[in-house]
Structures are given as structure tokens and as C-alpha cells.
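Lecture notes, part 5. Sequence design as translation. It can be helpful to think of inverse folding as translation between two languages: the language of shapes and the language of residues. The source text, in C-alpha cells, appears below.
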């Protein structure tokens, strides 16, 4: 493993340690020493990679939302490669979003909580990375409108934000209050909302 790969691996360990601790204790109560201990590295390693705890958290947001954005884009691309419609791509993106949240629940809880706070030093970064994720959905919706799959009257920007928000809220409710349900249960419910409201019902191929 070269030095670049080692640094990426170290940063990933720090991200995982930080997100778990901050989700448990809150940002202010979490110390750099605790993050280092949880990650299994020296305190100096944290400062070698990040100038401060604030910078670590800001980069954590970039990293986490970047993974979400990539998973959404991959779902859309794979659907297109199979010849699926743009509404099919949106449906696949819902499943991908749920999968991401199921895999990274602590990060998702942290991300949603931070969306409501406006006094953080990383607020500008949060808005940028949020828009990157929503923009992937916007692109697919716009293509669906251009292809005649969705009405031209739809507000593309607001609908994209609503779909992302729907997945986040539904997934958090699923994990907190209905953990006995499977990811397919949740996806099926959200898919029917998508097909019935955005897709107009004409693309619902379920029996």
C-alpha cells in the first residue's frame, strides 16, 4: 500500500470514529483524543490529517455526502445502461439512497441534524454538498420531463429536493420506529409514491 492509499485508509478510520462518537455524544462533547482512541491511532495522527476538529467534521460531511451522491449516480447510470426509463432511474435512486442510509445510519442521523443548524462554521460546505446530491436527482427529473415521462408543469428543483428528503425521513423513521421492516418494504412504499405522483402511475409495473 503506497502512502496515498495509507492516508486514505487512515482518514476513513477517522471519519468512521468521528461520526459514531459525534452521533452518540454530540460535536461539542466529542474530543480529538476520543476520536483518535476510537480509530486506533495517535492523537497526532488526527492533526496530521486535519488542522482541527472542525476541519475533520467538515471533511466528514464532504466524504459522506460524496458517497451518497456517487451511489445515486451509479443507480441512475446502471438503469440507463439497462434501457430503463428515467422514472425507473428515480426508483433505482430511491433504493440506492435507502441502501446508503442502511449502511451508514450514524452519518445520516448526523447529516439530517446538521441541516437544521445554521450557526455552524461548516454551514456553507453543508449546503454545497447537499446541492451536489440533489443535483443528481434534478438531472434525472429534467431528463424525464424532456423525454415526456413527467409533466412539464413539475417544479424540477423542488421535486428533486422533496424526493431526497422523502428518502431521508422515511429511512430514519424505518430505523428508529419500524426496524422489523426490510429495505424492500420501505422501497416498495416509496416507489408507489413515486410512480403514482411523479410518474403518473403509468410506469408502475407491479402487480
Amino acid at each position: 500500500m503506497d502512502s496515498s492509499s495509507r492516508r486514505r485508509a487512515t482518514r476513513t478510520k477517522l471519519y468512521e470514529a468521528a461520526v459514531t462518537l459525534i452521533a452518540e455524544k454530540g460535536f461539542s462533547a466529542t474530543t480529538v483524543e476520543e476520536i483518535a482512541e476510537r480509530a486506533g491511532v495517535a492523537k497526532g495522527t488526527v492533526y496530521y490529517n486535519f488542522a482541527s476538529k472542525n476541519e475533520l467534521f467538515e471533511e466528514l460531511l464532504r466524504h459522506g455526502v460524496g458517497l451518497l451522491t456517487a451511489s445515486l449516480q451509479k443507480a441512475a447510470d446502471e438503469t440507463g445502461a439497462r434501457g430503463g426509463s428515467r422514472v425507473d432511474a428515480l426508483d433505482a435512486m430511491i433504493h440506492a439512497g435507502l441502501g446508503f442510509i442502511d449502511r451508514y445510519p450514524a452519518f445520516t442521523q448526523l447529516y439530517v441534524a446538521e441541516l437544521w443548524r445554521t450557526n455552524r462554521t461548516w454551514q456553507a460546505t453543508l449546503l454545497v454538498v447537499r446541492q451536489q446530491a440533489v443535483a443528481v436527482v434534478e438531472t434525472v427529473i429534467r431528463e424525464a420531463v424532456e423525454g415526456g415521462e413527467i409533466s412539464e408543469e413539475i417544479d424540477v428543483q423542488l421535486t428533486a429536493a422533496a424526493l431526497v428528503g422523502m428518502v431521508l425521513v422515511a429511512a430514519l423513521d424505518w430505523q428508529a420506529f419500524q426496524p422489523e421492516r426490510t429495505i424492500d418494504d420501505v422501497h416498495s412504499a416509496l416507489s408507489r409514491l413515486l410512480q403514482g405522483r411523479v410518474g403518473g402511475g403509468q410506469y408502475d409495473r407491479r402487480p
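The translated text above is only one of many valid answers, since several sequences can fold into similar shapes. Confidence is low (pLDDT under 50) at residues 201-207.
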